[in-house]
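Sharing a chain and its predicted structure for anyone who wants a worked example. Both blocks are below, sequence first, tokens second.
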Amino acid sequence: MYAVVGCSECSNLWIIEGRSETTQCPRCGSRKAYEKRKKFVETDDAAHARDVRASMLANRQGEGEAFAKLDSFAALEDDVADGVVDDAEYLEESGLDVAEVEAAGDRDPRGPSRSGSKKEIVEGALEALDEPTEDEVVDYAAERGVDAAYVRDALEKLTRRGVVSESRGRYRLL
């Protein structure tokens, strides 16, 4: 059993399935006994209850005439199910190569194997490499999409802050 009910506090309309002792308005939260709620229609068909509620909402907004020209929700759902275009078909009809689009989606836009921020990559190089030179850190970061100027600047800042030590051209984390 489905019922289209209304709230006397906020005028909300909703559908209730079954018959509980009390109902709560999903908009304002007011609770009332099921029997005290205004029931506009009671039916065994969920689609019919949806159609009635939608019609009432359309009438409230002055669109009742336009709504009357539409099919029921069940018919609209069938129309949509039949007319859905999948992604591959849409891309092909747009003149795009589906395989290339999928491959592009799999690529990381930041570079082939970049993970983390630029600073994290520089620090990761210092952790992964055993007392690397500046050039080794630059190469490590460049493989992950970080430019050399950023790496050199980051090494200088990390050294000034005391996070990294530099001795004879070799760096290590402290």
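Comments welcome. The two ends are 71 Å apart (CA to CA).
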